[in-house]
Structure formats: structure tokens, C-alpha cells
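Render N-alpha-acetyltransferase 20 in 3D.
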Amino acid sequence: MTTLRPFTCNDLFKFNNVNLDPLTETYGLSFYTYYLAHWPEYFQVAESPSGEIMGYIMGKAEGQGENWHGHITALTVSPNYRRLGLAAMLIEFLEKVSEKKQAYFVDLFVRVSNKVAIKMYQQLGYIVYRTVLEYYNGNPDEDAFDMRKALSRDVKKKSVIPLTHPVRPEEID
């Protein structure tokens, strides 16, 4: 049985097995602690009965007015625990937190080459809102899709009307 629980500082010493995937963005220790300090409600772990970290989600709330939204900064599941619905469970958790914060939508960035993740996000109701050119620092040729899912506050679904042209990272609001 999987347990969802808040991420703790001690988890920083136990989650390397999840971060080894080449498609997982990894950050410095200060980045994780910054998120943990500022948006602890958005930082959750999926844990196995033996205490092993199976996956995690890290996010935040940001924006103003109709751009107020939840953002998935990182989502990853250990290769040993994929295809069990853990990613969907973690995303659903983050969406519920965003609903409580009265966000208009949830967004995320995903490599355009990560077809498996894109398909999963689409199955969960996310749409490709726009393409962000050369988004990933490690690979200037790698673009990202900015994917979004409208929440109940966005009654007219204005947040998910796709842009017709790509943008550069510095143009992201």
C-alpha cells in the first residue's frame, strides 16, 4: 500500500533513487529546501510500506488575477514503481491543493521529447498551451511544452486556450 505524506528535510537524503532518471530535472539542495519552506503543502512523497520513496511531486502557487495558478515544478516516480498510477495520484493531490487555493489552473513544463509523460498528462486532462523554445539549460535544442489544466474557478476555461505561436523562456509570465 502506498502512503502519500508531506515531504520532509530527511527525505532529501533518501530520494536519490527517484532522481536518477535522465528525464527528471534535478536541482541543488537549496532549491528543494526553498520549496519546502515556501510551499510545503505542494511537496508530497509517495512512500512504500518499507519506507522507500516511490516518487514525489513538488510545486507552488504563483501568478496574479486570472493567472493565479498551481505549478508542478517536479514530478517523478522511481522506475521500479512506474505504471501503477502513482504520478496520477500525486498530480490529483496537487490539483486539490490548487483548488483550495482558488487557482484558475495548474500548469507544468515537459520536454517535447518525453512522449510518455505528454500522453499521461493528456489522459489526465492537460492540454499543450504553448511551446517554449530552448527551455532546458542542459540542451539548448530541447523545447518544452507548457501544459495546462483548467480548474473549477476558470468557468470559461480561458486559461487553456492554446497560444498559436511559440515563446522564449524570458517571455513566460
